[in-house]
Amino acid sequence: MKKILLAGESWTSVTTHIKGFDIFTTSRYEEGGDRLIKALKNGGYEVDFCPNHYAGEHFPDTVEKLRGYDAVFLSDIGSNTLLLSDRVFSYGDTQNNKCTAIRDYVLAGGALCMIGGYLSFSGIDARARYGKTAVADVLPVKILPYDDRCEHPEGVFPTVSNDTHPLMQGINEEWPCFLGYNKTVARCLPACKTIAKIDGDPFISVGSFGMGKSAAFTSDCSPHWASPDFMSWKYYDTFWCNLADWLTK
């Protein structure tokens, strides 16, 4: 059984409650990858989930460790989380660069998918900052150097420009709307292709780098950018399994 590492898709919310004279806070931990994980498992994949608060210390930091997976999915996890472990940030020690390890893993035959979100590609206030990391070398899109979010509360619909690509196999209707995405620029290399666009920008792109492959899905796999129509779409599982199949073939 092929194995996928999904990193990111978790957060902790802290709420301040003010009730007259009194004030107190509450916190809540949440995860957003359940639907994606279910889709991949339904397609026969084993999935290891590495949430954001765990990734800083435990995301694989060498090519050898990453080779335990057929593909790595990064979804809403900023590069700081990968680069600044406690060992580095709190104690000033050195550690292997996880972003460099991801690039070298792809070049050596591994597979990578980046899924959009507030901490993907460039991200909110440019805080994801993957354009300044080695991961950018093996993505099929160019990352902008500023806040790349395109918010569309009115909904925006992707258009498929290459319906014969294996990623579109078995998908026989138009895509549901999305509420936003990360704006990127198509990479003009023979091995890179834009499969679908959203509002004229890359929506789904794929590429080959060295001996490996990568893909960019510039919107989200979960709310809020992923609309309820997408989350309940009958082709949700089909698409993600097609993508995993292409990456790991």
UniProtKB/TrEMBL annotation:
Gene3D superfamilies on file: 3.40.50.880
Pfam family, one: GATase1_like
Domain Putative glutamine amidotransferase: 3-248
InterPro entries: Class_I_gatase-like, GATase1-like
Protein name from the UniProt record: Putative glutamine amidotransferase domain-containing protein
Organism: Monoglobus pectinilyticus
